[in-house]
Amino acid sequence: TASGTGSAGAAKAPGDIVVGFAQVGAESGWRTANTKDIQDAFAASGMQLKFSDAQQKQENQIKAIRSYITQGVDVIAFSPVVETGWDAVLKEAKDAGIPVVLTDRAVDSKDDSLYVSFLGSDFIKEGQKAGQWVVDEYKNQTDPVKIIQLEGTTGAAPAIDRAEGFADVIKADPKFQIVASQTGDFTRAGGKQVTEALLKSNPDATLIFAHNDDMGLGAIEAVEAAGKVPGKDIKIVTIDAVKDGMKALSDGKINFIVECSPLLGKQLVDIVKKVVAGESVEKRILTEETTFTQEQATAALPTRQY
Ligand code: GYE
Hints:
Blueprint: E1 18-23, H1 29-45, E2 48-53, H2 58-71, E3 75-78, H3 87-95, E4 100-103, E5 117-120, H4 123-137, E6 145-151, H5 157-170, E7 176-183, H6 188-201, E8 207-210, H7 213-225, E9 235-240, H8 243-250, E10 256-259, H9 265-276, E11 284-286, E12 291-292, H10 294-300
Parallel strand pairs: 1-2, 1-3, 3-4, 4-5, 5-11, 6-7, 6-8, 8-9, 9-10
Antiparallel strand pairs: 10-12
Helix pairs in contact: 1-9, 4-5, 6-7, 8-10
The structure holds beta-D-fucofuranose.
Residues 27-28, 30-31, 104-105, 158, 186, 212, 214, 239-240, 260 line the site of beta-D-fucofuranose.
Main location: other
Keywords: Signal
Pfam family, one: Peripla_BP_4
């Protein structure tokens, strides 16, 4: 039970509730779907949403949060671009009596009274699921499996946790070797550029683990430019399951995708309503997710929302 900072007492009409949302950026298909879902859910709720895009820069997000504090919004929600460095600004929000809800990404802070709730995925589990697919896929191979890892934004919860979960599972067999690991910043351009360079220095790599679909899609271009066949010569495992990723999976260019749902809007609206009404909310709310093989992607594509 984490609430209590909400303005309890006379119920506020939805139209009088103002929420400030500080988004990470527009770096990926996942992020675009997440932004749209949040904006749609708030529009449907009748509440007022102030929205800012930090272009993947923490300083911009801190500025946005400070401006929401100055404007005296009822609730601040944000998806922290990186895990650390939030204590000061979150303390300012707390001192101003404005509850903060974390969506999608976690903060690394000793003081968990700085936010009322954290809604999002279990990124460690996602990395483990990707690792488990790799272990199963190569169960009959004894030769080393040389892996290139495309990391998400340095210092971001999903980059840290997905790497950790993946490493946890593959370490059971020393034949799995991560021969290179570098950030592609969760973007398609970043994934392409890093893969180009890493394929040159590691021509014997046969597997790419990308922390999101967009970097995997960039990697496909680099693999093809190197004269190799993505999905065959170089297998690719990614996380997200946005439409472009699912298409590439169905086309055989990606081999496996772990789902991470960007559809957090409705749940965020519910949390905000409760917080404003002074009701208690769960400190940690997990989203439900699955995984997709190539066949499953083909079956799911026609009805995929994002
Ligand atoms: O996987 C990636 C996006 O934080 C879960 O951020 C999110 C990640 C997502 O850029 O595509």
